[in-house]
Amino acid sequence: MTNIAILCSGGDVSGMNPAIKHFVEYALQKKLIPYFVYDGYEGLIDNKIVKAGYEDVAGIMIRGGTKIGSARSKRFMQPEYRTVAKQNLDTHNIDMLVVLGGDGSFRGLHAFYKEHGIKFCGVPSTIDNDINGTDYCLGVDTALNIIKVSIDAIRDTAASFRRAFVIETMGRDCGYLALISSLTSGAELCLIPEVEYDLASHEEEFKKQIKNGRRYFIAVVSEGIKQDSQEIADWFEQKIGIESRVSILGHLQRGGNPSTYDRLMAYKFVTYAIDGLLGSYEESVICYTKSGFEFKSIDEVVGKHKQLDSGLLTYLSKM
Ligand code: F6P
Predict the structure, then answer these.
(1) Ligand 1 lined by 127 (C-beta under 6 Å)
(2) 89 C-alpha vs ligand 1 centroid, how far in Å?
(3) Residue 156: other Cβ atoms inside 10 A
(4) For the domain bounded by 141-254, which CATH number is listed?
(5) Does this chain's domain 2-139+258-304 share its CATH topology with 141-254?
(6) 198 part of the active site
(7) Ligand 1 centroid, distance to 172 Cα (angstroms)
(8) What percent of the chain has pLDDT over 70?
(9) How do residues 88-102 score in pLDDT, each as one tens digit?
(10) Distance between CA atoms of 16 and 23, rounded to whole angstroms?
(11) What is the pLDDT of residue 224?
(12) CB of 194 shorter than 6 A to ligand 1
């Protein structure tokens, strides 16, 4: 029998639990013995490695977060701790890993494979959707749905009070969540790190709209822009002349029960990951693009800035 383990690394996403559930079920179907590594690479170093069975994943499909925990591990970036991790995996006869994580989480894996021959398949999992080489990362759809519900709710109160709301989304240096949310919620303003902006260029138009009866503004801004959200709200008050509020959605965006799409993508990503490891892919990331699922090398995926869809970016220039 061959042993295979799964771990989550970096920011958790809604969709990890469905992925963990399918990992156990599909591994058993393939006559593999599934293991959990608790708390990411930290757990690999601290030997938090436990055999898993059907009973461990019953009922977790509908839960956000991750049953096996996650962590951002600085220690795993150091070779001596990777040696400890390898020794721990050896005690359980594990030489295949499925890793749910983001760009940063995949960095150490390549070295781990080179040094110790541990085969791996990375499953892109981050609400930021900022991994180069894949159009979709697990968790994005659920996060977008939470943002949508939040903006819809804020719109009600914004309209009642004649206010501007500056709604801040997560995404680190990537404006994907803000761009898509703004486009699909009909926001009046969207600011993202990838696009230079000049607030002054909106002044005349926004003032004219108020004169013509506009009661409220929705501005969706990504956390990575150079200004603080409060500064954008101050601009609405001082230059546009409308009372304003800031709403930082924060970690709400990382929770909630997984959307149907994320449950399905979790199923597909994990199926490919295990099939790839049983086939000829020893060190890869399973990506989803317009051509379908593709195995890509760490070099193709890590450390490169992901470009946002240029077609969607033209939407910003028309705002
Ligand atoms: O990478 C996912 C993410 O949620 C980013 O959007 C955000 O900047 C960061 O993680 C927050 O990290 P933490 O949960 O450590 O505060």
Answers:
(1) yes
(2) 28
(3) 10
(4) 3.40.50.460
(5) yes
(6) no
(7) 7
(8) 100
(9) 999 999 999 999 999
(10) 10
(11) 97
(12) no
